[in-house]
Amino acid sequence: MDIIWILLICILAACAVVLITSAICFFKIFYSPKRKPRAEDDYDLPPGKEYEPFYPQMIEWTKQARTVPHKNVEIKTFDGLTLRGRYYEVNPDAPIELMMHGYHGNLERDLSGGIFRALNIGHSVVVFDHRGSGLSDGSVITFGINESRDCRKWIDYILTEINKDAKIILSGVSMGAATAMITSGYDLPENIIGIIADCGYTSAKDIIKKVIRDMKLPANILYPFARLGARIFGGFDIDETSPNEQVRKSKIPTIFVHGDADDFVPMEMSEKNYEDCSAEKKKLVIIKGAAHGLAFPVARDNYLAKLHEFFDPIVSR
Questions:
Q1: Residue 39 has pLDDT above 80, yes or no
Q2: What value does the mean pLDDT take over residues 167-182?
Q3: Could you tell me which of 86, 202, 213, 262 has the fewest CB atoms within 10 Å of its CB?
């Protein structure tokens, strides 16, 4: 009897360790605490020395994004969350970029420059806060799994509430790029004419394990706990699909952009996504000296020229 009790205690202790470790991984990786609206004179800027030289420009872009005429928009997700965003219209017939921000970011912090960039080349913009981000509901970030479902809801919103004949470009930075790539592999309306994937990763597994290794922790040991934590506490499977898996199915014209000084999402991930993408029309643009998410601020003119070169023939069809 004593042996049985000892075995039972050992089993319960092991289960407790697994559960606690999975919970810690969930809260460290996937959980997003409740957010407060920012004051008009408050600007959310990405941390890191590589971003500091661009702070004045980022603040100016944020001010412009707040003051340029736009309409506040929102959708309900498949699981009942309200996602909130903005619609900037160049003209009723302009192509519309559905623009998505990065991990633990928000539309203002990550995409104010993107709004300026899109309007500059004659694209209207729908931009929004992901679930668990900014002014949107939710507390769980899923690295593009549920975000890609939300993306498809936004596509429906554009076609039903803005323009049923709209030409739509899915555009994203980092996790937003991953979301666009995941979405590209599903059955989408012909209105989707292109994708801009800026510094996106190959899979959630790849980028999570890379960050764990950067922290000098055992990635192969901890990742299964992260996946289990996502299942138990987040209600999703982080390995359900991946950007790289989905671009292998995609026929949508896609331009991949990455900075060669990106030490967060390695440039090689965009190179692999580009190589594996099944789209007949695709392009890889490497921006020298650009850190993560800084390709446009570092090389504005080159970035705009590459987008014009890629999309003008598509838009004019």
A1: no
A2: 98
A3: 213
Beta strand residue intervals within 43-157, DSSP E? 71-76, 82-88, 96-100, 124-128
Which pair of structure tokens corresponds to residue 247?
């671009």
The answer to whether the CB of 276 falls within 8 A of the CB of 247 is yes
At residue 250, what is the residue type? S
Q: In what order do the strands lie in the sheet with 168-173?
A: 71-76, 82-88, 124-128, 96-100, 168-173, 192-198, 254-259, 282-287
What does each C-alpha distance from 284 to 105, 156, 201, 287, 310 come to in angstroms? 25, 29, 14, 10, 11
Tokens describing residue 43: 């600007």
- Residue 1: per-residue pLDDT: 57
5 band by pLDDT with thresholds 50, 70 and 90: confident
pTM attached to this predicted model: 0.95
> Dihedrals φ, ψ of 205, to 5°?
-60, -45
Instruction: Say which residues have a Cβ less than 8 Å from residue 258's Cβ, sequence separation at least 6.
Output: 198, 199, 265, 267, 269, 270, 271, 284, 285, 286, 287, 290, 295
Nearest to 194 by CA among 58, 71, 311, 19: 311
Cross-strand pairs, 194: 169
